[in-house]
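Sample entry follows:

_____
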Amino acid sequence: MPPLPMLRLLSLLSAGLVVAGCATVGQGFDPAGVAGLVPGESTLGEARVLLKASPTQTYAAANGAVQALWYAGLRGPVDSHASRSVLLAFGPDGRFRQVLDARGVILDEAATDRQRRQAACLEVAPGEPCDAYGGPAAPAAVQTGGHVPAAPAPAGCYAAGEKVVICPAL
């Protein structure tokens, strides 16, 4: 039987080999920032600010559309469950379209639902404004007989000027 110091040395070497087979990949990002993206409005630059990191990879299509991947995790000889990623689609105009995939992160369900409805609205009526809930927005002059009032703030939000609405809960 090997002496005790030899066993310690062997166990330290074994642990070192296991750790050496793993590597941190990507960079930390804030998945909560995905909730702040607005389909048809937010840009890749704004996504970088909201997610507090640059994407790990971007994929450009011939038409100018971009898919951006944020990934952070631990890679090793065996797939790790300690990873998270978000894949976002941006249209040829450079504007956010939709969340294509999210793994290992919990996204705000209400924000994700709103984003899906807004993305669907953009597909149905490209270039037309969509309301905050994903439906086509009727022109204000049509709704009010020619008078265009300031838009009321949605529930849980408040107006901070004529065109700025702040929604801390969204």
Summary: Residues 23-130 form one domain.
